[in-house]
Design brief:
The complex is a heterodimer of chains A (281) and B (292).
Chain A lengths: L5 E10 L9 E9 L3 E5 L6 H8 L7 E6 L2 E2 L5 H7 E4 L12 H11 L4 H14 L15 H13 L5 E5 L7 H18 L2 E5 L3 H5 L3 E6 L2 E6 L1 H5 L2 H6 L6 H11 L11 H13 L2
Parallel strand pairs in A: 3-8, 3-9, 6-7, 7-8
Antiparallel strand pairs in A: 1-2, 1-4, 4-5, 9-10
Helix pairs in contact in A: 3-4, 3-5, 4-5, 5-6
Chain B lengths: L2 E10 L7 E11 L4 E5 L6 H8 L7 E6 L2 E3 L9 H6 E4 L12 H11 L4 H14 L16 H13 L5 E5 L7 H18 L2 E5 L3 H7 L2 E6 L2 E6 L1 H5 L2 H6 L6 H11 L12 H12 L1 H7 L1
Helix pairs in contact in B: 3-4, 3-5, 4-5, 11-12
The chains are: A alpha/beta (281), B alpha/beta (292).
């Protein structure tokens, strides 16, 4: 993959919440390449969600600078930035305003003062893209968690963003709901050439990303490809995280005297290595 | 304390046009002191079943026996309180129910509400907070100043302060980071092993089922469609798939290496440790076999 120009930059960004001694973000600098899928991992309270909220102007920063899609994040640009960067939050129950699914998707467009005929088309197109056309006239309350999150994604898509940020958007869903949302995002990313920034505890999702950024106590502690990050197993566990399944298995097999190649192996690579060891014995 | 559901059906909003089936003719036994997992898709009736285990819901038909109390459709709502002290229910995202000014007051609220004298309720609160790993330095904090994982533990302490004999957990680790998840699951395992508290766990995490449960109920469409040990439930991957349920990751990976030709012996390993244990002799015959 050729390195794209950054679509998000953060330079020495600090956020302090009132009544908390330690800053939630403590001088974070990072860049996120356009059209990448970047997974942001870290334990609960590490500052991941604050980072997303800072980018979207939902918390004010106490120091540093940020850009999103070439625009400096400040009061003047924030509404433009929110059209470029859409956020899907954790709790599907908390993000509905419309009486019907279609109304809900239209809400962002109304805010952006899109004329009605264009709005109707864009709502229909966005619902089509997330596979929710059949539900356009339903009440959001009656949808499953996965369906609700797909409607929330449609609301963002209708604004034709460059970036979708997922703030643990699948963590309250059952495995099927989670899979349906991730599938939807993967397809959209390819179709719309989006950049995805996903805050997640799902290590299998992170392992499938292009880049992984690790945040700990408001600091950026590691940034790299999944193999680079997951090869540092012990350090991740020390930070309250975990390692993908294959990395745990590798540790146990090595403890049992088996030699496996250095570096992170995904499931297919691990299975192939095990077969190789077995068949050449 | 044993719980027996005998031909239990439950209809939501019975007698109205909005009536909907919650449970259909469910007969199951939750043995005294067991660790039971309930799995099934969203909407399969898991939460409805849970709420029958401490009489938050009463059956529309059939009976529920909780210890020596029998709950029927006619049972009055009076005098159910002692039951709810014995069967502690931890709801999903339990931290949403915190409300007091300080951590210790929040945890002591339950026992106080059940008539335990204030001093003893506070003592129980401190004990419960110790169990969940919240130290004295947090007792005077507002629960709302804690991290998500800590708030969850305070909420669970509130249930433990009632000294329940059975703890019912509805997806207790949802939304927590891997460390928080591991700590909570270890806590429940300790309560089960060391204090003999029965556990009923509703989960989507098949790894937790494989690692901790002794008994598994599979629900679909308001019915218990299968029950057995984790090994028995996970022995039929095609059946699970047909019911929108998965295998633990170790079992899934074991099937992948089997498909490549590695002769992993049956039964399918369900945990990562069991998988490593089964793989070692195959990869390292001389040493592995003599050592095992």
């Amino acid at each position: 993959m050729t390195e794209e120009a950054p679509i998000i930059t953060m330079e020495n960004v600090t956020v302090r919440y009132a009544e908390q001694e330690q800053p939630a973000l403590d001088g974070i600098s990072l860049t996120i390449p356009a059209h990448s899928w970047t997974a942001l991992i870290g334990h609960n309270g590490s500052g991941k969600s604050t980072l997303i909220k800072a980018l979207d102007g939902l918390v004010t920063i106490d120091g540093g600078t940020m850009t999103v899609a070439g625009l400096t994040v400040n009061e003047e640009n924030i509404w433009q930035i929110r059209r470029r960067l859409g956020v899907v939050f954790q709790n599907p129950e908390n993000q509905f305003v419309g009486a019907t699914v279609a109304d809900d998707v239209a809400f962002g467009l109304e805010n952006a003062q899109v004329p009605r005929p264009a709005m109707v088309d864009r709502v229909a197109a966005a619902l089509e893209q997330v596979g929710m056309t059949a539900y356009a006239e339903r009440e959001p309350a009656h949808l499953s968690g996965g369906q609700k999150q797909r409607v929330a994604i449609a609301g963002i898509l209708a604004l034709a963003p460059d970036i979708i940020a997922l703030d643990e958007a699948t963590s309250m869903l059952d495995p099927e709901g989670r899979a349906s949302v991730l599938r939807t995002i993967r397809t959209l990313k390819a179709q719309e050439n989006l950049t995805i920034l996903s805050v997640t505890h799902d290590l299998e999702e992170a392992a499938a990303a292009d880049h992984v950024i690790v945040i700990d106590n408001g600091h950026l502690v590691a940034s790299g490809t999944p193999p680079e990050i997951f090869a540092q197993g012990a350090a991740l566990i020390d930070m309250g995280l975990s390692v993908p399944f294959t990395e745990q298995l590798k540790t146990d097999l090595e403890a049992g005297g088996i030699t496996l190649p250095a570096g992170y192996l995904n499931e297919e690579e691990m299975a192939a290595q095990l077969w190789k060891l077995y068949s050449t014995m | 304390m044993e719980i027996v559901l005998d031909h239990v059906s439950f209809t939501y909003q019975a007698g109205t046009p909005f009536a909907g089936d919650g449970l259909k003719d469910v007969s199951v036994t939750i043995p005294d002191g067991s660790y039971t997992a309930i799995i099934g898709q969203t909407g399969s009736g898991k939460s409805t079943l849970l709420q029958h285990l401490n009489a938050l819901l009463k059956p529309t038909q059939g009976t529920v026996r909780i210890g020596d109390r029998v709950i029927t459709p006619q049972t009055s709502n009076k005098n159910l309180k002692p039951l709810r002290a014995k069967v502690g229910l931890v709801f999903q995202f339990a931290e949403n129910q915190l409300f007091e000014e300080t951590v210790e007051k929040d945890v002591a609220f339950g026992p106080k509400n059940f008539g335990v004298p204030a001093a003893e309720a506070m003592e129980r609160a401190h004990h419960a907070l110790t169990l969940v790993g919240i130290g004295p330095e947090y007792y005077q904090h507002s629960p709302f100043d804690l991290s998500g994982g800590q708030m969850r533990r305070v909420a669970i302490a509130g249930v433990l302060a009632m000294t329940p004999e059975l703890l019912i957990l509805d997806e207790p680790t949802a939304g927590l980071d891997p460390k928080g998840r591991k700590e909570l699951m270890t806590l429940f395992e300790q309560l089960h092993q060391e204090q003999g508290i029965g556990i009923v766990l509703v989960t989507h995490q098949m790894e937790d089922v494989a690692n901790y449960a002794e008994h598994v109920l599979v629900m679909a469409g308001g019915q218990v469609i299968k029950q057995g040990s984790p090994a028995a439930i996970f022995a039929d991957p095609d059946w699970l798939h047909a019911h929108h349920l998965g295998l633990p990751q170790a079992a899934r990976f074991a099937r992948l290496v089997q498909a490549q030709g590695l002769p992993l012996p049956a039964p399918l390993p369900l945990t990562e440790k069991a998988l490593a244990h089964a793989l070692l002799p195959l990869l390292h015959p001389g040493k592995g076999q003599s050592d095992e």
